[in-house]
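User: Show me a protein chain along with its predicted structure.
Assistant: Here is one chain, sequence first, then structure tokens.
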Amino acid sequence: MCSSDLKVIELTENKGVSNARNVGITNATGEYITFVDSDDFVSEKYISTLATLQSRYPTMLVMCMPEEYDDKNAIKYKNDGDNVNIYDKEEYLATQYFYHPWACACAFNKDTILKNDLFFCVEAKFGEDAYFVNKYLCFCDGLAISQKRMYYYYIHSDGGSISKKGKNYTSKDVESRYSSYKAYKEAIELYEMKAPEYVNDIKSSYCFLAADIILMQLRANDHNTEITDNLQHVLSIKNCFNYILHCRYMKHTLLVLGMKFMPNITYRVLERINDEGRSN
């Protein structure tokens, strides 16, 4: 890439990753946009692979598989082959946490973003990638995922990108995680207007998120009933049933059902399991 192709924008104030990406979107001059976090890197053929995918599947959201690494483990360059897996919109929306819920390693059409005002939600402090992808997917036919691992995603050993076991959560942590609920409502409203046939699918996928926040509330001894009531609304019988139909992981299913019907008992059981795990 020539230096003339590069444009550096200096932000005078740190307003978070969502704001930075929105600035990048506004100033981008190319036809497609991809996001790379500052502590990640990509292979030499990352851009060309996404470009080839986009030409083959012009109405799809295209992406490649990510590879995680951390401070303790060396990067393992592996390739799962040249296969491209195709997923329809319904399957992804209902099971997104098992596929690719972040915005990195994807290629997005800039005109689609600008035309439909699909910017990142700056208020969300957690899960902002998933909601951006959800909104963008509203205007796609599905997903095309290359099995080539060409995006290398850094996992912070201090818990920056993975949750700490046994962390003492506070009400501030709950509020931060709950900010994702606002972005969730934005996505739901978009689908209600543009693609109502997929509303139930996207609602069900947030059952796990709602259950996870309720569990965090219990761990933080947080008694904000407004948050609890809103999240229990997400955990409706209909949404939970649809989630169970798609969920591939039993522990996720048990968490959703537990936080819906027996939150306190489920919480005590999970804490007992965590305590035993830490003692072994």
